[in-house]
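FAQ: What does a ligand-bound record look like?

Like this one, built around iron/sulfur cluster:
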Amino acid sequence: MSRTDRLEPGQAERLLREREKDWRKALRRELPIQKRMAIERQPMPEQEPGVRVRNFKEVNLGYTLELARVEARRCLDCGQPGCVAGCPVAIDIPTFIKYIEAGELEKALEKIRETNGLPAICGRVCPQEVQCEKDCNLVRAGKAPVAIGHLERFVADYLCLREGTGAGISASPEVTRRPEKIAVVGSGPGGLTAAADLARLGYRVTVFEALHLPGGVLAYGIPEFRLPREILQSEINFIKALGVEIKTNFIVGRTASLEDLRQDGYRAFFLGTGAGLPSFMNIPGENLLGVYSANEYLTRVNLMKGFRFPEFDTPVPRARRAAVIGGGNVAMDAVRTALRLGAEQATIFYRRSRAEMPARVEEVKHAEEEGIVFNFLTVPVRFLGNDRGQLQGMVLQRLALGEPDSSGRPRPVPIPGSEFEVEVDLAVVAIGQSPNPLLIKQLPGLKLGRWGNVEVDSQTMATSLPGIYAGGDAVRGGATVILAMGDGRRAARAIDEFLRRE
Ligand SMILES: Cc1cc2nc3c(=O)[nH]c(=O)nc-3n(C[C@H](O)[C@H](O)[C@H](O)COP(=O)(O)OP(=O)(O)OC[C@H]3O[C@@H](n4cnc5c(N)ncnc54)[C@H](O)[C@@H]3O)c2cc1C
Ligand code: SF4
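The answer part, i.e. the structure of the complex:
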């Protein structure tokens, strides 16, 4: 029996909270608010643009311990922290930051991991500027927000990689083992989060992944210069250490059906199959050699290590003039990849203006620093090829912004007679993707939405079929890592309730 078991129910938590209050009060006394507010936001050290465009190493180099502690001092430990309300998984942000200020890094990581199983990833790829940092109370005081994402990344990296403490920090919760087996389909952030939470609740969880490596988009979509694979691996190791089994090269719906898995004893399912089906523009010339979906292009480079061809088997097109169509994170990743693969000119063609670009602000800034050309309010109307079927150019049309459409953003309206031609030998189409249909189309009675997305109860992530839950991009279309994780978390809670009811 552990020491906490001998205390009255809730007593341990109360004692810990009291102790927490004391050291936090001491920190406040040590450095008053005015002094905290006078500290400037600490910039993230980066590789120089001229150097990084010639390699695939991570652009951001991460805070040092000194930088992190200075940045942590900027946090006011607010009574009503806007940051927490802005975080889709409600991380206790002030507490983890104050732990960094106090030099208690393990406690900081434990605090984050209470609600977020992938901190090194979220610290790198979450759009903090429209979430926690947007709602940081410092913004209302006219200051730059606390660099919450940089701090989250720092603490995860520092402990998992640099100190070599491995991934297992809080991986051995004393839980009552439960006999039920649960199948998670897809190993993206949604599936991994559902799996981790269910394992923590004591269930026997298996993740089935179609590809040869786990991680979903984190493995095949987001390039190494934003998310090094050792970081992804370290986070996945943490989830495995919780007891989750991951079976790769296993396509549910081909290798085995959901019904086969049910026969095999799986009692509940989470579908985290993502949105890997690329959208095309359906314009003439789209099947010329040299026109790729972003999905294929990035998969060749990231998952198949095409950038290290011929050391690895998969060739990847190396263009002189690369065009990427789209304005989201996927487009930014594709265009910066083309540049690193040697393009003399790499250009974004986006049909709205800069203000409407959905990409993370940091990615756009980095792309600009690297020399990416942005061509706003333009859309290709046809691709041009030579007699060998190879892409040679594109005809584009100029657009103007009109009335808002259903997304609330101004609708791009073609300007008659504004067509113009550009020379390109690679075009990557990054205009969106829809849910992977393979499995979800096989399930009779599974209610799908207009875009082929799985329909769910937004509180429980329950689908129309009993015992089957879904989340992430399979439900939302192309969304974000943290939203997929939030879905996985809600589904895990609901699956637990479902199995207990049964
Ligand atoms: C290039 C790119 C860059 C992005 N950048 C960002 C970013 O900076 N920040 C951000 O927040 N979001 C970003 N996103 C979006 C984010 O990655 C996704 O919203 C998120 O990964 C969705 O997670 P998921 O778990 O729903 O599915 P996914 O990550 O798509 O994973 C689904 C997994 O399911 C597997 N699968 C599918 N069907 C089956 C089956 N039948 N059997 C077994 N396995 C199956 C797939 O192989 C895949 O591995 C980006 C997306 C892309 C493509
Ligand atoms: S709102 Fe900003 S200053 Fe306040 S606790 Fe959150 S991060 Fe710290």
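Follow-up question: can I read anything off the structure? Yes, for example: Residues 181-276+434-501 form a domain with the FAD/NAD(P)-binding domain fold (CATH 3.50.50.60).
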